[in-house]
Amino acid sequence: MSLSIVQVDAFASSPFTGNPAAVCLLPAPRDERWMQLVAREMNLSETAFLVRRDSGDGFDLRWFTPLVEVPLCGHATLASAYVLWEDHHLAPQSPAHFHTRRGLLTARRDGEWIELDFPADALTPVTVPEALVSALGAPVVAVCRNGRGFVAELEDEATVRSLTPDLAAIARLPVHGVVVTARATTAPYDFVVRNFLPGAGIPEDPVTGAAQCSLAPYWSERLGKTEFLAFQASARGGELRSRLDGDHVRISGRACIVMRGTLLT
Fold first, then answer.
1. Which residues are catalytic?
2. Distance between CA atoms of residues 228 and 216, nearest Å
3. So what's the pLDDT on residue 147?
């Protein structure tokens, strides 16, 4: 059996920026071990697997890093929607409906941007852990926990951009990952962000859509607004729009296809 697989740069306005994701549309479900092996072979932060539902109400969607399955992924969801439209599995203006372990997620086109509808994270402020400060190697202004890890505000944009954390120490923390953020001083952005996930096999995620589920509520409280333009300051870099809408976050980005291939097994 041969299957097509498409590599998409998500949250990217041009190739070789943003966050690459592989998207594989399956004719029928495959077992977890096979999907994990494919994700390891692709060696990207996430590989998305889609199966059209018999009921016709969208697609089942799962995401795998090279090491583990993850419960939520923004950039690979955006990439999946883009492939469905570009390869005519969906009409250009039809919304994409994804059934996931986090419930129903949707995507729609807004010009060259794609808007995702994701659940907002509940944030719990915590005392700044000394182990986190040591792992980051930088002062921490405040820390919250969501269902996946720490969200740490640092002193300023320059500190976020220049950060060289101890990834082995981050992997030992009792969390899935660490998002660091600061108010932006570079126009037109509201805040900057980076995301470290070494325990999931991703030393630094290039651009993280799901992080906006925490960052939009976090910065809404601090900046007194609900719409944001953020920059993820990884080596590849990427722009994200987000809008806090009640208990949801609307996350927007652009995408481009950079590679097509065929899985032979």
1. 46
2. 7
3. 86
Comparing 137 with 1, which gets the higher pLDDT? 137
DSSP 3-state of 230:
strand
Tell me what the mean pLDDT of segment 198-204 comes to.
92
**CA-CA distance, 55 to 102, in Å (whole number)?**
19
d(CA 167, CA 265): 34
pLDDT value at residue 1: 66
Q: Can you give 170-204 as a three-state secondary structure string?
A: HHHCCCCEEEEEEECCCCCCCEEEEEEEHHHCEEE
The rounded distance, in Å, linking the Cα atoms of 123 and 137 is 23
- Please answer whether residues 176 and 197 qualify as being in contact, where contact means their C-beta atoms are separated by less than 8 angstroms: yes
All CATH 3.10.310.10 domain ranges of the chain, comma separated, are: 3-110+254-263, 124-246
- Residue 246, pLDDT > 70, answer yes
pLDDT tier for residue 245 given thresholds of 50, 70 and 90: very high
| Displacement of CA 247 from its chain's centroid (Å) | 18
DSSP string, 21-76: EEEEEESS---HHHHHHHHHHHTSSEEEEEEE-TTSS-EEEEEE-SS-EES--SHH
Task: Pick the range with the lowest mean pLDDT from 55-59, 138-142, 213-217, 255-259.
Answer: 55-59
- Please name the fold of domain 124-246: Diaminopimelate Epimerase; Chain A, domain 1 (3.10.310)
Number of other CB atoms surrounding residue 258 within 10 Å: 15
Q: Does domain 3-110+254-263 have CATH number 3.40.640.10?
A: no
